Amino acid sequence: MGHWLMDTAGIGSIIVLAVGFSILVAYVYMLRWIQAAPPDPVLVEAEAGDEEAFAAQVGGDKA
Amino acid sequence: MARWGMVIDLDKCFACQSCTLACRMENNTPVAGPDQASRGRAILWNEVLPFVEGEYPEVTMALIPRPCQHCDNPPCTKVCPVKATYKDEEGIVCIDYGRCIGCRFCTVACPYQVRYFNWYRPEWPEALKEHLNPDPEVAPRPKGVVEKCTFCIQRLRKAREGAEAEGRPFTATDYTPACVQTCTGRARYFGDLDDPNSLVSQLAASPRAFRLLEEMGTQPKVYYLKQG
Amino acid sequence: MSQPYRESELERAVLNPLRQTTMQFYLVLGVLGLVFLWGAASLIRQWLLGLGVTGLGRPVYWGIYLSNFVFFIGISHAGTLISAILRVTQAEWRRPITRVSEAITFFALVLGGLQIWIDMGRPERVLYPLIWGRYQSPFLWDFTCIGIYLLSSTLYLYLPMIPDLARMRDHMTDAPRWRRWLYQAMSLNWHGSHEQNRRLEKGIGIMAILIIPIAVSVHTVVSWVFGMTMQPMWHSTILGPYFVVGAIFSGIAMLFIFMTLIRKAWHLEKWIGAKQYNYLGLLLLVMSAFWGYFTLAEYLTTGYGSLVHEAHVIQAKLAGEYAPWFWAMVTCNLIFPFAILLWRRGRTPTGTFIAALCVAIGMWIERFTIVAPSLTRPSLGFERAIYAPTLTEVAITLGSVALFSLLFLLFFKIFPVVSVWEVEEGQVIEAVRRKAEELAYQTG
Questions:
Q1: A9 touches C at CB < 8 Å
Q2: Following DSSP, what letter does each residue of C118-166 receive, concatenated?
Q3: Which of C2, C251, C275, C282 has an alpha carbon 20 to 30 Å from A51's alpha carbon atom?
Q4: What ipTM does the predicted assembly reach?
Q5: Top-level CATH class of B4-225?
Q6: C258 pLDDT more than 80
């Protein structure tokens, strides 16, 4: 089995491509994970113009 | 399945180099010319090599004909990235010219220097062009690939076809490489090393028998019989 | 947009070359371009005629192209070492030079891979290893490791660039349209929220750790292309670690060369200064000592034993036709670095630049004296050969160096040469530390 894996034409290509491709996918996932990070909550709410939510977050202890 | 091997009796060899010539005619190796040859670019699948020992005036020289050693444990096939060179079921190390990428890893891995590279497109003088072997199996190789002695594997195929045409079973004696057939001193023997009754396996067991760079563990299938 | 954006001093220094192009730039570009074209023309001629235009023959089947391959892969260690190791150990002074070193890694890998293609007898079959690949061959191990390294170092170059790209997307509105589009696309909607920063730092942290073993694997399998054969003085267990040490050594040297040139051309004296030159100079000195130790270990072991086949090769290197190469290598890699870098006064920009040039040349010679001499003395000792490279090989080698510099230069015509946000982060850390010390002093 070991010899067959090492000595067969094409198996080496599959190993190289499989390793390369899985790493590429992992890296793309990492980039998308960074891209998908939510913006800071304060900014979102403030831009939305929801003053109550803004107060709840920024001035939560005012009451 | 046979395990093809060769025995060369150095007592009988007088270095006439007819093996080298016969090989060239059989296998269509190109003509390099003196300039290219001096740069180590002559392609001679079978070569008679000079081994000089000592310094003048205490000099001895041994002349050893060297075809491919067709190792049972070939270091060249191990390193090939695309399996363009491989050992077939009968122990002959072959090259697929259509697949060779010309990286020359096998040429540096072979300790016997039996592998040759096509530095340019192969060429022949006009007079020789008419005498090329027409067998498609030995058609001239393209530039940029590696080639080497195949024990005239095309002759094995022809011998099998011949036996079949005659309606008789193929025997090991039907198959003879060109260098063995032509050897002036009858110094070369060829046959099946796995057959205990064959001449080659008996000679290979002789106390005179040795192999080149045996300590490297390549297990060549070319045996030499010591001189003297 | 309430207020117009005001660029900091650093931003102006780094971004100005992206806006304005000087006469000098075109001049350098022209010279490099000509050398590159000379190499490219020689390569096309080689493809048309065959590898016969090189100085190769039997038994020296591998020559300068393989030396270049090992050399370029070796200098690709610059990025890993400086960036990853210094990041992991949190050395603050790394900040202004990480981008340069990561770029060296990327382009050196591209050029290294190219050398194998140049060396092939059938260049049109370059993809065959991806179709008929056979894993027992060390070339396939190279394909695997260099492939992983290329992907990883691309990401490792890209990740810390994202915040800078976003900044350019927002503020370099005067850039040509295609470049604005490029910054827009490449900045991945970066908005720099707390969570996004955390994720980016985490990503960079993972890559910094991951890329170190990957780099070690690359330099090791490159050595195994030679080590796995039975050629005298290739077939040695020291070759793997020896190549790793040589890679770090030449990588630092290459970083010195490029960072000094950039410091001068971009006027970054304020950010790349005495600290970087002193610490990195010490590191180069340490690697020189390591390299000397490995060389001594290899040559003494081989020479003392004097096995027949190896004795011929070592003789050729120490006293034969390769002796000028060998002793030039020792001078460049050991004597010059020690003579210059041992002293504090030597670890200046000029001093280290000279030492680094010596090391870069010395390490190329080292690669050459590993590849060629062993092949001139094959085990079956019926012939000896002398390998002399032809003009084609010289042209392609110089063309490769020119292409490497050209890619590097053009890259930094589009992207910032210093990681601006990381340097700023360093400045904040420094300010906070000072303030804390001040407070501690006042209260204590």
A1: yes
A2: HH-S-GGGTTGGGTT--TTSHHHHHHHHHHHHHHHHHHHHHGGGHHHHH
A3: C2
A4: 0.92
A5: alpha beta
A6: yes
Q: Measure in Å the smallest separation between the Cα of B90 and chain A Cα atoms.
A: 17
Domain parsing of chain B, residue ranges: 4-225
Angle at A50 between CA A45 and CA A56, to 5 degrees: 75
- DSSP code string of C249-262: HHHHHHHHHHHHHH
**CA-CA distance, C169 to C186, in Å (whole number)?**
9
CA distance B21 to B42: 13
Number of domains into which chain C is organized? 1
Q: What pLDDT, in 10s, does the model give residues B188-222?
A: 999 999 999 999 999 999 999 999 999 999 999 99
Residue C194 is part of which domain span? 52-123+142-443
How many beta-carbon pairs under 8 angstroms link A with B? 5
Residue among C121, C131, C137 minimizing CB distance to B144: C121
The answer to whether residue C43 sits within a structural domain is: no
Inspect the interface and report whether the beta carbons of A37 and C195 lie closer than 8 Å.
yes
Contact flag C135-A19 (C-beta cutoff 8 Å): no
pLDDT band of residue C172 (cuts 50, 70, 90) is confident
**In chain B, which residue's Cα lies nearest the Cα of A10?**
B82
| Phi and psi at residue B99, to the nearest 5° | -115, -20
Average pLDDT over residues C375-389: 84
DSSP state, residue B112: T
